[in-house]
Design goal:
The complex is a heterotrimer. By secondary structure, chain A is of the alpha/beta class. Chain A is built from eleven helices and 15 strands. Chain A folds into two domains: 3-223, 3-Layer(aba) Sandwich (Rossmann fold); 229-283, Alpha-Beta Plaits, CATH 3.30.70.100. In chain A, a hairpin with a 2-residue loop joins strand 10 (205-210) and strand 11 (213-219). Classes of the chains: A alpha/beta, B alpha+beta, C mainly alpha. Chain B: It comes from Geodermatophilus sabuli.
Chain lengths: 306, 369, 269
């Protein structure tokens, strides 16, 4: 499968600080890629390097199979981007902003412009927007308008940085539906976020950035695959240890972790011994646990000198 | 070195090279060598003096470094020697030419014809008609390198002149001619005149005072087109809405006071300089000397004496002697002499302070005849 | 790309406010001169202002001379300083570049739009100046008088006025190029505009200083007033051609510097 985004040894140094230190991204066609990392971990710098805004100190970036930033003029029209929040000309209407953005680069036919602008506005839920200038828009409307700008040229790849910022819960859900819809239509989505829940709900692949290093890059399904243990909820936790001697891994109040990848078998043993079981499930690690295990402490923590 | 740093370097290198080339261009053009020719000094002088009928048009700049203590009537003449004056000239002949003094927001044009001069001042919309006079204050046309060079060379003797190489002036080869005045008491160290090889037109004149390194006056052409300019450019018809006046003459007041003052017989020589014969000038007014070294004596009317005395006393470097107060500004010396019988004379010329003091004593000792 | 920049500039209310403010001063001067009948004395005040008392049709030139030393360059510095830094500050620069609008193309389009702003501004000042002049002062419909005292026909006067408008526009290119260059150095439009103004003030100051006369021919403001030379008879082309060449050199060098800086710059705004 051809990589949609691939970087090799990507480094960005600001003076003596290595903001991004040798990362090898690998995003494949059809992925919804969650790019996770705490604030200041180098996420934004990486996204800007992908789009040719920041020039790498070392390493290579290939987008849709072509070298960046050399092939920017050919590649970027096939990419939609939302970078660090939306930005528009406040004195113009949303429609005018989109039309100007469309006219500013190659690959946007003047003839179909009005129709395409109306289509993306409807797509992001702004179809009925009037001639108000953008400066009168709410934060959520601006976010939707920014998303509309990214979708304007039916991109093969969407690079989104915190796309649900400023949206209310309905808005977040709508955007999520929209992204999943686009994904079903064949668009690859690269989603940079610090919201674990958002990534967990949307993404098929995850990369975790910590202090400039890519510490993890894996299919979400693999990361959260069953661990081979079963979680049992019971009011009589102490009796479980007696029944399943040697298989109990941990007891936390009414929650008991038992070795064994077959809940039915565990259930049968416990019920057979007369232990009441109120809940039963395969143990899966949460994304949070995976990320915390891979990454260290938050980089914006400042420890006192000891 | 990374690819990015490489890109930065070659881009800024290209910009630096562009700036270097552009900055070097004027210096390269300025360093174009002038070709010299073996013309003897006397022949070059004759060619320069005989160039009054060479037609040309051009653009000239004169820069003077004199700081003169001036009274109101003399401001314009004094500005000529203390400021930068930019001039355009169209020259068809000695009494058929036009010289415009350019200002940032206007101009003053002097149009000479056979009968006199029209002086047009745009900003006040005044056209002034003047008569040719044998003695007048310096006006812009006198500062043109061609006119000044001819005037200064006209009375030079062969012994005063030497050749000094060549340089490029206004894009033309100009041969250098150095005049070192032989007159006693001259304050001028030397005058360098750069003469066009082809036509004999003086293209640049530098007057250097004794003991100075910078020229006290430097006038040169920046552009020069040979060829007689059309008469329509030189001719002048006052515009319909212009005010037409007779030309003011600051010297006429002095000449009048010279006529009205008791008859004085000025001596035939002052400080070793012989008196020059001048037409139409009262006997109380005299000009002494020759060529570069000249001294003018003008009576001052009683009403103007105190103001002039105050101005001279207040000027830095003025010297007070028994005969009066004197002052040097570059090569120019000025002295106000007040005689025991309460008459006053102004002495001004290109002589040393000592020479002007000696001349002042000569005037001071005069008695009414 | 150029069309986009022009549309952005002229659909912006601030642009038209600037032009309106720029026109207020000449109109005020015209009314004051008319009411008090006090024209500036010769050698003082802007060129052509004393001449308009007799011919109001010359007021476009006086209006240009009034705004030329300070108002016009300030407006140009602000617009040029805003060109790239303004987009950076608003955050729209990253979207433009990711669109992608090539960086070199963007620079050229920005310069063209600033030039268009200057041209429109100068034309509006001249037009408003003409309306003001002809309503406030007397008009001599037949002809005008040149600075050299010859008479100019109506066609000559119109032609030379148009040339003067063109020359004033070109004169502003140096300031525009400085503003554009500084605009690529910083993300603050204010800093870029102030930088261009600092160059302007320094140049005007050095021009008046005798000690700076060796560098005077290279100062960007050196030949600004040379548009007066168009109204001499015959026209004095010397300073006009030098002014054009000098502005060309400034635009060339500064645009190259802006290009060298901007095309290798990290856009982090």
């Amino acid at each position: 499968m051809t990589p949609v985004i691939s970087t090799r040894g990507l480094v960005k140094r600001y003076g003596r600080i290595r903001a991004v230190d040798g990362i090898d991204l690998d995003v494949r066609a059809g992925d919804v890629y969650g790019f996770l990392g705490a604030n200041g971990s180098g996420k934004t710098t990486t996204v800007r390097m992908l789009l040719g805004l920041v020039l790498p100190t070392a390493g290579e970036v290939a987008l849709l199979g072509e070298r960046m930033p050399r092939a920017a003029r050919r590649v970027l029209p096939r990419v939609g981007a939302l970078i660090e929040g939306p930005a528009h000309h406040g004195h113009l209407s949303g429609r005018a902003n989109l039309a100007l953005l469309d006219a500013a680069g190659p690959g946007g036919s003047r003839r179909t412009r009005t129709r395409r602008v109306q289509e993306v506005l409807e797509q992001v839920g702004l179809g009925g927007v009037d001639r108000r200038p953008v400066r009168a828009y709410s934060l959520g409307m601006r976010q939707r308008l920014g998303l509309a700008g990214a979708l304007l040229r039916r991109p093969e790849l969407l690079v989104l940085d915190e796309p649900t910022n400023g949206l209310d819960p309905q808005g977040i859900s709508e955007v999520r539906e929209l992204l999943l819809d686009l994904h079903r239509g064949g668009t690859t989505v690269f989603l940079s976020s610090h919201l674990l829940a958002e990534v967990e709900q949307l993404c098929t692949r995850v990369g975790v950035l910590d202090r400039g290093h890519l510490v993890l890059q894996e299919e979400l399904a693999t990361l959260t695959a069953p661990t081979g243990a079963t979680v049992v909820h019971t009011p009589a936790a102490d009796r479980v240890r007696a029944v399943l001697d040697g298989r109990v891994l941990a007891v936390e109040g009414s929650r008991v972790v038992v070795r064994g990848a077959d809940p039915a078998e565990v259930n049968a043993l416990l019920v057979g011994a007369g232990v009441p079981v109120t809940g039963l499930a395969l143990q899966r690690p949460t994304l949070e646990e995976v990320v915390l295990a891979a990454a260290g402490s938050s980089p914006d923590r400042v420890e006192g000198a000891r | 070195m990374s690819a990015r740093a490489h890109g930065v370097w070659w881009r800024w290198g290209a910009v630096g090279a562009l700036v270097a080339v552009l900055a070097a261009l004027p210096a390269i053009v300025g360093a174009l060598p002038a070709s010299d020719a073996a013309v003897p000094a006397a022949d070059l002088r004759d060619a320069a003096v005989g160039s009054a009928d060479v037609g040309f048009s051009g653009y000239a700049v004169s820069a003077g470094g004199l700081r003169l203590p001036v009274t109101q009537q003399l401001t314009e003449a004094a500005d000529l020697f203390s400021d930068r004056t930019t001039m355009r000239v169209w020259w068809r002949g000695a009494d058929d030419h036009r010289v415009d003094v350019l200002g940032a927001a206007g101009e003053t044009g002097v149009h000479r014809d056979a009968g006199g001069t029209w002086t047009w001042d745009y900003e006040s919309s005044v056209a002034a008609r003047g008569e040719p006079a044998s003695l007048a204050l310096p006006s812009p046309p006198d500062l043109l390198p061609s006119s000044l060079g001819r005037r200064l060379l006209s009375e030079a003797t062969g012994g005063e002149l030497t050749r000094i190489g060549a340089r490029r002036v206004a894009g033309r080869d100009a041969l250098g001619l150095r005049l070192v005045p032989a007159e006693p008491g001259s304050s001028v160290d030397r005058v360098d005149v750069w003469v066009d090889r082809a036509t004999g037109l003086p293209l640049q004149v530098e007057v250097v005072a004794a003991g100075a390194r910078q020229p006290a006056l430097d006038t040169r052409f920046l552009d020069l087109d040979l060829g007689v300019p059309p008469a329509s450019v030189v001719a002048f018809t006052p515009p319909a809405d212009a005010r037409i006046v007779p030309a003011p003459d600051p010297l006429s007041a002095a000449l009048d006071s010279g006529r009205s003052s008791p008859a004085v017989q000025l001596p035939a020589a002052l400080a070793g300089l012989p008196r020059r014969p001048l037409e139409g000038v009262p006997p109380a007014v005299g000009v002494y000397g020759r060529g570069v070294t000249q001294l003018a004596v003008v009576p001052v009317s009683p009403g103007n004496t105190s103001g002039l005395r105050r101005a001279l006393h207040a000027a830095p470097g003025s010297v007070v002697g028994p005969a009066g107060v004197r002052l040097a500004a570059g090569p120019l010396a000025v002295m106000l002499v007040e005689t025991p019988d309460l008459r006053a004379f102004l002495l001004a010329g290109t002589v040393t302070l000592d020479a002007v003091a000696e001349a002042g004593n000569g005037i001071w000792r005069l008695r009414p005849s | 790309m150029i069309g986009v920049e022009l549309s952005k500039l002229f659909r912006r209310p601030r642009t038209w406010t600037t032009i309106a403010v720029l026109n207020a001063l000449p109109v005020l001067v015209a009314v004051l001169v008319r009411l008090t009948d006090l024209a500036p004395r010769p050698g003082e005040g802007p060129p052509f202002l004393s001449a308009v008392l007799t011919n109001g049709a010359l007021y476009p030139l006086a209006a240009l001379a009034i705004v030329l030393p300070l108002f016009l360059p300030i407006a140009v510095a602000v617009v040029a300083g805003d060109s790239v830094a303004g987009e950076a500050q608003a955050g729209t620069l990253r979207y433009l570049l990711a669109r992608p609008a090539g960086r070199t193309r963007l620079l050229v389009a920005k310069l063209v739009s600033v030039v268009a702003f200057v041209l429109v501004t100068v034309l509006v000042v001249a037009a408003v100046g003409y309306l003001t002049g002809t309503t406030v002062f007397d008009v001599q419909p037949a002809a005008g008088t040149s600075v050299s005292g010859t008479s100019l026909t109506q066609e000559e006067l119109v032609g030379r006025t148009l040339l003067a408008i063109g020359y004033v526009t070109v004169s502003m290119l140096g300031v525009a190029a400085f503003g554009l260059f500084f605009s690529t150095l910083t993300d603050s439009p204010l800093a870029a505009a102030l930088g261009a103004l600092a160059v302007l003030v320094a140049s005007s100051l050095l021009f008046t200083l005798d000690a700076a006369s060796p560098i005077a021919p290279y100062l960007p403001t050196r030949y600004w007033l040379a548009f007066v030379d168009l109204f001499r008879d015959p026209v004095l082309w010397r300073d006009l051609t030098r002014g054009l060449a000098l502005q060309g050199v400034y635009v060339g060098v500064l645009l190259a510097a802006a290009w060298a800086n901007f095309t290798t710059k990290d856009v982090t705004s």
